[in-house]
From TrEMBL:
Superkingdom classification of source: Bacteria
Gene assigned in the entry: selA
GO cellular component labels: cytoplasm
Organism of origin: Eiseniibacteriota bacterium
Protein name per UniProt: L-seryl-tRNA(Sec) selenium transferase
Short name of any one Pfam family annotated for the protein: SelA
Lineage: Bacteria, Candidatus Eiseniibacteriota
N6-(pyridoxal phosphate)lysine, modified sites: 302
Length: 475
């Protein structure tokens, strides 16, 4: 066989460039300052591998082999993505303030500053400066929590799921936890009350029915094996119609009479009454404690607007047993969390400044007119041809609170609605998500809505640029 013939028979991917030659390209060389050699080499390897795959997919015809330039560009794109922070910032144009997939709460400037300082320097996290002896990390957060909640004692763990696990394991290990059937809910991300209960070593004692549970159902279930009564905020779920649940007051007196602790998972952790903004009243932690619930638990990053954390508060003796459980060490909150939480809670001491300072509260409470003003501003910042290409207009809409809080509440809002001519809504949504400043919107009745309630004024320019860029990608 002639050498020329033999060459033709070799698989065409033999012609793909080598890693070494890609690394020498001007484009990849330009990253040498910013990216370590290993990152560049890996990007080159992956780009070559991808080219090989696409070549195979097209039947291996030499004519269709990706060009060297295309492979270099692909490698550069891979390097770029390695240089981006991960997780990376996105523009939340869903209007959902507590969006679990987008990181739930955005922190206040005060909390951010506290995190940065705590991260940068050594701190007295577990050192009593006065005595020069070992201290507890809870001393930083417990006094402000007990003050705000009117509780005797408090404890902070990693998140509310951890708080539940710890409380159930402490009070009901090998014993029964009495719960209404109507409260055996699943709360996003596969957190199911019956399952967490089982993993905590407690035995589930269901009482009542799905829609109706009465006090005598609880009374009948309580006995020598009872470890605790559990009351759960049904979170993202609401029961309507022919329903009945036992009031908190009635459960408190029953728990007292039977001398068993009453644990209430209030879920989203409202520290203030949201009805002032026309939103439904969520269980407020302080009220639950005042009414005599033995221990309450809730999240730090839902309606409270702080970092991910699980807060437990209530009777001194019970909180002390939680602390003594060896599991508490495994579930404990990290120093950055504690710093952010303390800074957030301090803002709650000044109700006049609170709703401006905590982004979650600011966004939920912002008047409609202000949201509409931002929507109009965004619309007018789009070049006229792009605006008409996408039939952009400002529309009134409603959104949900998110985070399993206030499931039935609709928050009125305003959005920029885009209706690309060719009806390629999914493509436009994808272009917006995958651009340099990812934008997450929602598709609703044939339009892509970019809801301005969750978009900060400072993000408007970026958002406009992202829209223009995504529309340019339109065929
Ligand atoms: C959200 C929620 C949880 C879980 O809280 P995390 O902080 O996400 O772990 C538990 N219970 C209720 C009622 C909730 O709403």
């Amino acid at each position: 066989m002639s050498p020329a013939k033999r060459l033709k028979r070799l698989p065409p991917w033999r012609d793909l460039p080598s890693v070494g030659s890609l690394l020498e390209s001007a484009e990849l060389s330009s990253y040498r300052e910013r990216a370590p050699h290993e990152v560049l080499a890996e990007a080159a390897r992956q780009a070559i591998a991808a080219a090989r795959v696409s070549l195979r997919a097209r039947g291996g015809s030499r004519k269709e082999a990706p060009s060297r330039e295309a492979i270099v560009r692909d490698a550069a794109r891979r390097v770029e993505s390695e240089l981006l922070p991960s997780p990376r910032p996105v523009i939340n144009a869903t209007g959902i303030v507590i969006h679990t997939n987008l990181g739930r709460s955005v922190l206040s400037e005060e909390a951010i500053a506290a995190v940065v300082e705590t991260a940068r320097r050594y701190t007295n996290l577990e050192l009593d400066l006065e005595r020069g002896a070992r201290g507890s990390r809870m001393t930083h957060v417990e006094p402000i929590l007990t003050g705000l909640l009117g509780a005797e004692a408090a404890l902070v763990v990693n998140n509310n799921a951890a708080a539940m696990l710890l409380a159930l394991n402490t009070f009901a290990l090998g014993k029964e936890a009495v719960v209404s059937r109507g409260q055996l809910v699943e709360i996003g991300g596969s957190f199911r009350i019956p399952e967490i209960l089982e993993r905590a070593g407690a035995v589930l004692r269901e009482v009542g029915t799905t829609n109706k549970t009465r006090l005598r159902d609880y009374e009948r279930a309580i006995g020598p094996r009872t470890g605790l009564l559990l009351r759960v905020h049904p979170s993202n779920f609401a029961m309507v119609g022919f329903t009945e649940e036992v009031t908190r007051e009635a459960l408190v007196s029953l728990a007292r009479k039977k001398r068993v602790p009453l644990l209430e998972d209030i879920g989203s952790g409202a520290l203030i009454d949201f009805s002032r903004w026309g939103l439904p009243a969520e269980p407020v932690a302080r009220e639950a404690i005042e009414q005599g619930v033995s221990v309450v638990c809730f999240s730090g990053d839902k309606l409270l607007g702080g970092p991910q954390a699980g807060i437990l508060a209530g009777k001194r003796g019970l909180i002390a047993s939680l602390r003594k459980n060896p599991m508490a060490r495994a579930l404990r909150a990290d120093k950055l969390t504690l710093a952010a939480l303390v800074a957030t809670l301090r803002l709650y001491r000044d109700p006049a400044k609170l709703s401006a300072a905590v982004p979650t509260l600011r966004m939920l409470g912002e008047p409609q007119a202000a949201v509409r003003e931002r929507a109009n501003r965004l619309l007018h910042s789009l070049p006229a041809d792009r605006a008409s290409q996408s039939r952009a207009e400002v529309v009134a809409c409603t959104t949900e609170v998110g985070g399993g809080a206030m499931p039935l509440a609709r928050v009125p809002s305003y959005a920029l609605a885009l209706r690309p001519a060719r009806g390629k809504l999914e493509d436009l949504a994808r272009s917006l998500r995958t651009g340099p400043d990812p934008v997450i919107g929602r598709i609703e009745s044939g339009r892509l809505l970019l809801d301005l309630r969750t978009v900060d004024r400072d993000e408007l320019e970026k958002l406009a640029r992202a829209i223009v860029r995504a529309l340019e990608e339109e065929p």
